[in-house]
Amino acid sequence: MVCPTLIHEYYEKVNPNVVALPQPKLRGPTGLRCPVCPSEMVYWTELHDSWHIGCPTPYNSHNWKTWRCDQLNHELALINLGTLRPIVSVSADWGPRVSTKGLTLPDLAAPPQGGRYHPYQSKPKQDPTTSTAKRAVVQCKRLSEGSVAQNHKKTANKGCHSQYCLGCCIAYGSSLCRVHVRPSTESASTPLVRDDRSLTPHQLSQIGLSQQQITQLRELEASTSAHGSQFPPSNVPARRPAPASQAQPHQWAQTSNSLGRRVPLAARVMLQKNRYDREHAAKQQSSALIDETKVVMITLWTNSEASQIVTGYFPLWPLLYLEQCELLIAAVVNAIGPKWNQALSVWNEEQECWCDTLVSYPIRRPSTLRTLIVKLQGVQVRMPLVLETNLPKNGPPSHPPSDHPAPSFTSLTEAPPRNTPSSPKTPYPSQLSVSSQDDSDELAPLEPEVKPNKSSIDPQTSNKYIDLTLLPDPRSPTQELPAAPSGSSSIPGDEEANSLLATPENVEYVLFEYSSFFTLQSDIDDLVRTSDTPPKRKRWPSSSVQLSSVLAWYKDQVHGCPKTKWMDHFGAQWHFSSSTMY
Predict the structure, then answer these.
(1) Among 320, 211, 199, which Cα is nearest to 263's?
(2) Where is the composition biased (Low complexity) (predicted)?
């Protein structure tokens, strides 16, 4: 409705000191208070060419106004210029009709005569000469092809396969037509629909059923028919097919113009069981063909006291993913619970350190090594335990038997010393006692108690070994021989040995220089290194050495020798360096 004034004088401004009112926008303030309540009115709804304003108070049902955009813009412009209210205007003063976005709109149509709306007089009149086009009529094509049927009609069905009428299609048309149904030629006693749902044994064998399963299927069908068939009776007349516009292929049909065969429920159950048996057998066969070279032994440390050994199969070995080992994942979840962050620490043999990784990350291992050491994050494992776990469990290498085995000694006191001094009065390193703890540990694996073979010894020695270190030095002929140890019993052959000792000119003396001590020492070190003990590492202490082990050694050496205690704690794994130790 057109009103001469929109913003009346009884509308109070929110800010009386501000002359200009805000421009209209959706949910924006109008700058005017409601005449009913002290709330500020807002532009509530945006219409096509007007604004719907009202109070924003909840459940408000008063002072709803509709202001046209062109009239509102006219009054706002005058008010912002200082014109006093009320502003009375007509539609000619407002300018063109505009929308809420400021776009110019076409003028509204003039109202009908009399001011009332007539339901049909306001509609435009149609020309009676013009009419809609009629639907195209399909002529029966049989009329131009030859003779027609008795009940021939000019109009044909456009859904017909041959574009014939009903009579011509039944008499001369193709049987593929799905629109014109042909009458049945079978007798009344014959069912209209043939029951061919059951399959022949040849068809069942082609599907994949064995002869035993076919026999069970026949017995199941016989029992089902005895207690009542699950299908409707076969003498139910066939329904008229849908027209061509609604025709849909059957769900068992291969094409739109072919018919499918319904498989009985018993046959479908047998097919599913047969498929399950074949898949189960194939799965068992595939699980039996496991490559043993891809089975890895994993040592898992869930705590610092004990470890757990599990076995995992990794198809891409030496590339592996820890998540592929179900036993490993189950052991970790059983140890720390389901709130696991999917992270583990793996021992790196090359860097000799722990490497944190996720179970979904790839890890590449040496193809010759099929062991893996894994621990939980935060678990402290002693380095000797890690090295002991990483060592191969094989025994020492077996050497082929020799025709002349080396002589052995039943005790360290009977073994010859490593070196012979040039002067018995001068103490050399070769005269050190071999009964110390370190030397006994090194020589223990090199002295198996094996009796010498008598046939391999020169008979001139009369089965006696002569210790040349006990003979006098030729450069000091007046030197007396050391006395024999007390408690030694006389054994056969002592007279011959004494005769050899009394005639030193018949014996070839073997004298070792002082420089040969280092050569013998290096030979012994090489023999020790060839044993089954792991090689010693250098640069002690590294980052892999735990601080607790260093503190334990420091506490232990307070009342003892630092070097001896160091050898007890770290000598089996690390090279000794006096400067680093002190």
Answers:
(1) 199
(2) 237-254, 482-492
Token readout for 44 is 């509530």
pLDDT at site 468: 60
Count of structural domains, the chain: 5
Please answer whether residues 329 and 358 qualify as being in contact, where contact means their C-beta atoms are separated by less than 8 angstroms: no
Q: Report the distance separating Cα 417 and Cα 439, nearest Å.
A: 12
Nearest C-alpha neighbor of 412 from the set 441, 385, 391, 386? 441
Burial class (CB in 10 A: 0-12, 13-18, 19+), 420: buried
Has residue 553 been placed in a domain? Answer: yes
Enumerate helices (H) and strands (E) in the chain, giving the number of each: 13, 11
* Closest of 582, 543, 545 to residue 565, by C-alpha: 582
To which residue do tokens 């069942």 refer?
204
Residue segments in the chain with a per-residue pLDDT below the cut of 50? 186-197, 229-234, 236, 245, 393-415, 418-448, 450-452, 454-457, 459-464, 477, 479, 481, 484-489, 503, 506-517
pLDDT of residue 95: 87
- Calpha distance 249→361 (Å, rounded): 51
CA distance 362 to 85: 82
- pLDDT, residue 455, reads 45
Task: Give which of 483, 302, 486, 304 is closest to 381, Cα–Cα.
Answer: 304
Question: And the tokens for 180?
Answer: 């014109």
CA distance 148 to 144: 9
Q: What local confidence, expressed as pLDDT, does residue 474 receive? A: 54
For residue 362, what pLDDT is reported? 92
Residue 250's contacts (CB-CB under 8 Å, 6 or more residues apart) are 259, 260
Detail the DSSP E strand segments found in 8-87. Answer: 29-33, 40-46, 50-54, 65-68
Domain match, 385 and 415 both = no
Q: What is the pLDDT of residue 113?
A: 58
pLDDT value at position 461? 46
pTM over 0.70: no
Structure tokens at 508: 């070839």
For 344-377, write each residue's pLDDT tens digit: 999 988 888 899 999 999 999 888 888 999 999 8
Beta carbons within 8 Å of 52's beta carbon, 6+ residues apart: 43, 44, 45, 46, 64, 65, 66
Report in angstroms the alpha-carbon separations of 180 from 87, 160, 337: 80, 7, 73
**N residues, the chain:** 582
Task: Indicate if the alpha-carbon torsion angle 149, 152, 154, 158 is positive or negative.
Answer: negative
Parent domain of 80: 1-105
User: Is 95 inside any structural domain?
Assistant: yes
Establish if 477 belongs to a structural domain. no
Q: What are phi and psi of 282, to 5 degrees?
A: -65, -35
Strand residues in 210-282 grouped as ranges (E): none
CA-based nearest residue to 476, from 498, 448, 454, 504: 504
Last residue of a domain, one of 181, 203, 222: 181
How does pLDDT run across 152-172, given as a tens digit for each residue? 998 988 888 888 999 999 988
